[in-house]
């Protein structure tokens, strides 16, 4: 009998030990992605902690595009360097000390590049600057201060038209589409999805097919070396000799209409020295005799003109039904439909800078200062010195104002209060307006004097 009892006890013990040995280890609990933040190309990835029912310590391995980036680590965040504008597939594997695993998969886009283009007048170069590092990343010969960018290509023109890769400056193609018995230079480049437009050094307007890099059409201008504007269908080109503004079909080169400014009020022959503002069905611009115009863009008929007695070489900007522009030493806001003056401000210095509108505010340079106004009322928000004459037009992005000056510097100011955040000397001497390209050309911020008004 005793043997049977002992045998039963042993069986029970064996069963208990067997059950204990068959107990399954608990894998870490599910966890989630909390945040991905960027500082330039440096990314911080943070996730919630995985819990382990067995109280095991949990370690993490982090993979990006199937490559182990960090691990095993015990903390629930890592810092790593990524590539600009690249798509990433993320995988984080949580592992306990007994080999239990739980996976978290996610997708995200890497940091967007921010490349700003500024022309160096003295060296005749366009300079590409990485805004995150504030370092010069490439240069290329260029003779025009306002920069044309399309589909990750930057166009420049000296004796040839050249397309450069936005991120490397490498030549993608180089062409001389206009044949002459003498050298031809290209200025005032502007691109849409089909053509690249330019005014040549012998005053010819040309359109170049971007796919074939061949001339589509050309028309002769007279003594025209000014920026022009374009919308979906037409180019609006200032010129001289009888008619001072013409509308040209972008795809055929046919002139639709010609407009002559009012009779001169001085000994100056009348002409227009800046790109017109195109908004709705009208054009807005000034002549060198101090008059401001509104013209119907379909017919070329004048809506009205306003004699201010002060000329300007800078382009107007649209703001809530009003047109805002500088005229020598003043800035004006006029009602677009009537030309009635809403407000005006006297700078005390001549302005050579086209205004830029952002977030209900107007940013413009005059003398050594950058000014910020309330677009509706004209109230001065702030005035900041940059230490040298401002000739370029400012641009604004993400709460920052960028402008170049005669001090051979690119300046960055806080858009809210005008405080100088940084300035960097990546150019020798610049009078050109900067152009900012975000990511793979997802967003291109041109200065107001660029003349592109339909995007």
UniProtKB/TrEMBL annotation:
Cite the Gene3D superfamilies for this sequence. 2.40.128.630, YVTN repeat-like/Quinoprotein amine dehydrogenase
Query: Keywords of this protein's UniProt record, alphabetized?
Result: Signal
Signal peptide, first to last residue = 1-21
**TM helices/strands, residue ranges:** none
The domain of life is Bacteria
Q: Where is the Pyrrolo-quinoline quinone repeat domain?
A: 123-345
Is Repeat set as a keyword in this record?
no
Name by which UniProt lists this protein: PQQ-binding-like beta-propeller repeat protein
The organism that produces this protein has a lineage beginning with: Bacteria, Pseudomonadati, Bacteroidota, Flavobacteriia, Flavobacteriales
């Amino acid at each position: 009998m005793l043997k049977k009892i002992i045998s039963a006890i042993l069986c029970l013990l064996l069963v208990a030990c067997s059950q204990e040995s068959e107990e399954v280890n608990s894998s870490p609990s599910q966890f989630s992605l909390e945040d991905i933040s960027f500082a330039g190309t440096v990314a911080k990835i943070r996730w919630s902690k995985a819990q382990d029912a067995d109280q095991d310590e949990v370690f993490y391995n982090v993979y990006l595009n199937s490559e182990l980036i960090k691990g095993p680590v015990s903390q629930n965040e890592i810092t790593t360097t990524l590539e600009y504008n690249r798509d990433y597939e993320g995988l984080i594997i949580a592992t306990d000390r007994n080999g239990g695993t739980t996976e978290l998969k996610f997708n995200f886009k890497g940091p967007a590049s921010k490349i700003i283009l500024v022309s160096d007048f003295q060296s005749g170069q366009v300079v590409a600057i990485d805004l995150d590092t504030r370092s010069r990343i490439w240069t290329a010969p260029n003779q025009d201060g306002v920069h044309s960018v399309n589909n990750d290509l930057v166009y420049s023109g000296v004796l040839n038209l050249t397309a450069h890769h936005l991120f490397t400056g490498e030549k993608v193609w180089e062409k001389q589409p206009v044949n002459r018995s003498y050298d031809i230079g290209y200025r005032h480049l502007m691109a849409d999805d089909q053509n690249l437009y330019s005014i040549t050094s012998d005053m010819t307007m040309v359109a170049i097919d971007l796919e074939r890099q061949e001339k589509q059409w050309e028309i002769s201008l007279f003594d025209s070396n000014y920026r022009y504007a374009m919308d979906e269908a037409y180019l609006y080109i200032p010129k001289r000799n009888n008619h001072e503004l013409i509308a040209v079909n972008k795809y055929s080169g046919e002139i639709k209409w010609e407009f002559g400014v009012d009779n001169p009020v001085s000994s100056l022959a009348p002409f227009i020295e800046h790109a017109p503002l195109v908004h709705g069905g009208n054009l807005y611009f000034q002549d060198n005799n101090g008059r401001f115009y509104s013209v119907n863009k379909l017919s070329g008929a004048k809506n009205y003109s306003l004699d201010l007695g002060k000329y300007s070489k800078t382009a107007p900007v649209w703001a809530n039904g009003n047109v805002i522009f500088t005229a020598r030493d003043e800035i004006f806001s006029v009602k677009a439909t009537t030309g009635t003056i809403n407000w005006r401000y006297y700078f005390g210095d001549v302005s050579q800078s086209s205004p830029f509108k952002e977030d209900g505010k107007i940013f413009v340079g005059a003398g050594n200062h950058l000014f910020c106004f309330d677009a509706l009322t004209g109230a001065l928000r702030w005035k900041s010195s940059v230490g040298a004459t401002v000739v370029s037009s400012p641009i604004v992005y993400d709460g920052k104002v960028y402008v170049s000056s005669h001090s051979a510097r690119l300046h960055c100011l806080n858009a809210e209060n005008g405080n100088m955040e940084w300035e960097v000397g990546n150019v020798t001497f610049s009078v050109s307006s900067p152009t900012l390209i975000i990511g793979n050309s997802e967003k291109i911020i041109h200065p107001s004097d660029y003349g592109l008004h339909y995007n």
